[in-house]
Design brief:
The chain has 153 residues and is an alpha+beta fold. Helix content is 46%, strand content 20%. It is built from 5 helices and 6 strands. The protein has a 3-stranded mixed β-sheet with strand order 1-2-3, with helices on both faces. Strands 4-6-5 form a 3-stranded antiparallel β-sheet, covered by helices on one side. A hairpin with a 6-residue loop joins strand 1 and strand 2.
Length: 153
Amino acid sequence: MNQEEIKKTIEDVLNKIPLAFSEVCVLDGEVADCKKFVIKGSDSNLLIGRDGENLSALSHIIKKIVAKNDGEEVVEKFYVDVEDYHTKKIRKIKNICMTMANRAKTFRRDVELEPMSSYERMIVHSTLADDRSVKTESDGEGKFRKVIIKFVG
């Protein structure tokens, strides 16, 4: 599916929900080779939900629809964002993991982060992948799975 078809799918889904939105913009995403579809509108808080839960569910539904409509073809990598909530969250996670990595280096100790989703953990792992003085590992089960930043030296 191309960008215009994905954008139309998002608009179709939003039109079935009784929430106001003004437009869907297509931008380059924070992750390489990934497009970002930003929903703008007055009901953005409802679309985002508590801790981004509604946005996550909406994104999941849209990706399933796009995958089903596209069959076995390779679907363009993309994610759905509302009023740049997702982008701001990625930046916040990167800032936290850099701060905690510096803490691990300063105190020469392992540092545990708060439990995160698999996507958030992937951001931490990729952000710190090139830092040779720390390594990252995921630990825990389900909703309690978190990243440990280990000092290597």
